Structure formats: C-alpha cells, structure tokens
Amino acid sequence: MLAAGEKVEFRANLLEWFAQHRRDLPWRRTRDPYAIWISEIMLQQTRVAAVIPYYERFLARFPTFEALASAAEAELLAQWAGLGYYYRARNLQKAARRIREHGAFPSSYETIRDLPGVGDYTAAAVASIAFELPHAVLDGNVFRVLSRVYEDATNIASGAGRRRFAGLADELLDRARPGEFNQAVMELGATICLPGNPQCLLCPVARWCRARASGRQNELPVKIVERKSVEEHRTVYWVEREGRVLAWQRNEESRLMPGFWELPEREQLPGAEAGRTLGWFRHGITFHSYRFDVVEAVAPREVGACEWVALEKLAGMPVSTIFQKAKRVVDRSRAREKAGTAGQAAAGGG
After folding, report:
1. DSSP secondary structure string, 233-249?
2. Which CATH code fits 4-219?
C-alpha cells in the first residue's frame, strides 16, 4: 500500500501530467451529463478512434435526452449502425425515456446506476466527471495501472480481483477532483501504461510503481479467463435485380439486433440458385469467429420473408454489420470487373 504522503504526491503528479498531455477528445469539452453518458456507452467495448465520428454525428442528430427519447427506432439504429452491440442503443433510448419522465438527468451515482444499460463503471464515470462525485472508476486501463503500481497479481477476471482493485481505486481517488483524477488514470493506462510495452520512462508516477521497481511490469495484470473459441463458415446470398437487393428484417422480438436488415442465407431462401462466389470476409462476435462467403444468386419464385430493398436506400436503414461487410465485398468485386473490362477494351483497341 502507498503511505498517505505518497498518495498525495501520486495524485499531484498524475493530475499535473494529465493537464499537460490529455488527448483532446470531444466528450472532454463538455460537462453536460447527457453527452458524457452517451460517450461512455459508446466507448464500451469500442476503441476511442472508432467512437469519435459516431459520437459527433449522434449528438448532432440527438442533442438532448428529449430528442433521443422521441426518435424513431429505425433512425436510432441507423445512426448506431457500425458500432455493434446494438442493445446499447436500445438501452440508451429506454434510459432517455425514463429521464424524460423524471424531467432532468439524474445527478447521483445511485440514480445514474439505475438507468438501463448502466453498470458500476459507467455510473462512476458519469457521476465523477459530470457532477464531481467521489466514485472511482474501474476499467481495463485502471486495472492495469493499479496492478502494476501495487505489484498485485490478483486475477482481475475474478470476483475477488474486482473487489480487491475496486478498494485500491477508491483509496487512491482524489476526492477533491474525482472527475479529473478518474480520467487521468484511464489516460495513463491508454497512452503510457500500455499492455505489452509500457512507456515507463515517460510515466509521471513511475517512482511509486512497484512492478517497475521489480521488473515485473510486463507480467501484470494477471487475467485468467476460460474461453472456448467457436469457428463457423457461413454463406450469404447477394440477389440483385434492377437496383434492388433481396433482404429480410429481424422482428422486434429477436434476441439479436431486432429490427435490423440482413442478407438471406439458405435458411431464408432455400430455393435460391447459387452462382459464383464474389468474395468473403471475417466477422467476430465475442468468442465466435465467422467466415462469410458472399455468393451471387438468382431468387426463387417465392422469396418468403425477404423483401426487395432499393440499394440507394440502404445508407439510411438499420442494416447489420454483416450486411455492410458483404456489400463492400460486392462493391470491390464489381470494381475489379469494371477495371478488367476497361483493360481488355484498351488492349483490343491497341
């Protein structure tokens, strides 16, 4: 454990470093709890660089919780399309409607934590950053910093490990500036205290890091999770006719991505006449690894639950990531064909 005086110096050095080196991220330019909450939900399991353009477009379209609460689900999902984990968008709207009923964004940790889709980390982040409430955050970056500073090899994937590091985070928290301190610890983990190659010579709190002193920084944190990876090979059909493509929509009761449009597979179009393979792509969901072949096909007489959708309208529709990846495969295939035809014509003309 750090002594009381060491904690004071640790906080001061870390906050001074953060003031000078913090990244200029759009959600750091506001104290609006709604905007901060949106960013934290988007950042769940998604990289910062990927979130920024979605965050800016989302807030431009839904600048307040009232606007989000009133949005049509199709438009909400279209704005979210590409971020994945679509239950997050639906939980955002459920929470926005609850906030609208209350009349204002909740201002205590407990009431924020009670919103749909909000866990301990998100509640602590919003409460501390927007309202300066003394609640320590605990995410992957914080786990890494704490495990190295305290040279603690407790398994961070275990319940005991979570409780252990939650206590350490709470002890280290600067209660006078909890929002800044939480962001500083996360920033340290994201930019300096990196997983595979920590930049210890640049670290503002290296003098208090026990793992660095013992040379164990690359061994920590310890994370032991039993995982069974599942691989699967699947085929989607690209059936196009007169500027339209055949697709089907998940119903509202679907467990996965209700309301989203998908390309048909054999299950949806058993009578389809498969043609050439246009290409393939990979897609990962948690511990599942998929390879999708995109096959050009001729529609059967009966298309079942599928519908003809205008290609020009796809950009404004909630289409799945698999659909988007498949369309990119088709577009690349068509571009290669066009280039090849142009090359042949040029050779013939010569």
Report:
1. EEEEEE-EETTEEEEEE
2. 1.10.340.30
